Amino acid sequence: QSMDSTLHYIHNDSDLSTNSSFSPEEERKSKVQDVVPQALLDQYLSMTDPSRAQTVDTEIAKHCAYSLPGVALTLGRQNWHCLKDTYETLASDMQWKVRRTLAFSIHELAVILGDQLTAGDLVPVFNGFLKDLDEVRIGVLKHLHDFLKLLHVDKRREYLYQLQEFLVTDNSRNWRFRAELAEQLILLLDLYSARDIYDYLRPIAFSLCADKVSSVRWISYKLVSEMVKKLSMASTSTFVVDLMNELVEKFCRCHKWSGRQTFVFICQTISEDDCLPMDQFA
């Protein structure tokens, strides 16, 4: 009976008025699908009801957020309309733990939904997470490459202007945040052109190389060496020459010993990873 009524609703879906204001009955029909028993999905969707969270379990919204990508995968992207409102409700939940859970899985959801739905429904949520608490931003940061590689090239370039903001954290002692940024930038080198790398990623890399925490600096040496490698392979060779000149000026001739030490470590990494032909390195 449940399946028959479900199919009946789906069959009648095409008869819905084109008017943008749906009646409660039409709104209910928009949440109907034929993959799982409808009662089960309705029960899941009701978990975001604030009154439930207060009377049943304060953690219920977090559990709901945790399992949402699995529910989306089960229903398929053709039934995303059933989950969209619930996802947006969870993404603006007052508890940061709920938003953090979604931030850690947004890249997985993007794979399930495909590029069109991602651009329309997930990118605005992603942008909101970028401005959230550090506990939420770290979820986005840890999978930054995984998410950005799924976007169209033009949309991806828009985030170049925001990468600098990851250097600023609520707590300056949160060095793991900066270490993760350096790790992600290494992966992001493959997604951007030589000019974008030189104009936008280079200043961030140099800033990370001068970080107060050695763990951040060590990852940053690897980042700079990979940057040298990427730019040396570009058809426009002036970028790598300009970069090397800046390395000499900024670190080799630095009045602080730590800066000169940084230059030596970067040279070591470039040499070990064969990032440059030896004659050019010399």
From TrEMBL:
GO terms for molecular function: protein phosphatase regulator activity. InterPro entries: ARM-like, ARM-type_fold, PP2A_Regulatory_Subunit_A. The keyword Repeat applies. The keyword Repeat applies. One of its GO terms (cellular component) is cytoplasm. Keywords: Repeat. Residues 11-32 are annotated as: Disordered. It comes from the Eukaryota. This is PP4R1 phosphatase. It comes from Pachyramphus minor.
